[in-house]
Amino acid sequence: MQAEQILFSQGFGSRHECLGLIVNGRFSIDGTVIKDPFEDIPTENLTFEVDGRSWRYFEKAIILLNKPEHYECSIKPLHHPSVLSLLPPPLRVRNVQPIGRLDEDTTGLLLLTDDGKLNHRLTHPKRKVPKVYRVSAKHPVTDKQIRQLLDGVKLADSDEIVKAADCKLVDEKILDLTIFQGKYHQVKRMLAAVSNRVEALQRIQFGKLVLPETLKLGEWTWVNSPADIY
Ligand code: URA
Question: pTM for the whole thing?
Fold first, then answer.
């Protein structure tokens, strides 16, 4: 792929701006400056630098963000900044979008992508992609509550019954709850349905992907392939 096309596809601005970056010597590969915008460069496993900052080439971007509290997943946030503001400009230019949503006060593993098909695949209820939430509950979680969550509970203001796919008690008030769906406030409403209450909520797993312990709140990393997720 031509150098200019690489930068354009990775969100570094208009074709004109990408051309400018290259002729001004701001684009390099392994430290070697490339000044010909039309040089043909293989994209497989490509890492390149813009102004010395290293970037991986991905035809489609998949991003894992450790979402902090007080960020909204909405593209047009109402009360807090958007999670997109935590990402560097090229990813925003590529128009990555959250895969599903986390509440403003929920932390943890949020995926974003510019691959519409993947987004649809991972959010479609029929696909049954497991999501694991670490719930800090207000009251000790009882065996009865776990049984109810596994058997299915009726959410308030809805006729729907939703079941936890798995429930693991980590501590008396800490529960790892796995669900397949992604209904509005689902975990909070499930805990409320068994007369408990969510005090804090963190998503720790999405499909096969586990939130890396080394990734601090607000930090992001690339996901290499959809095969890492499902
Ligand atoms: N369930 C909730 O209640 N909130 C979230 O953010 C995610 C799942």
Answer: 0.96
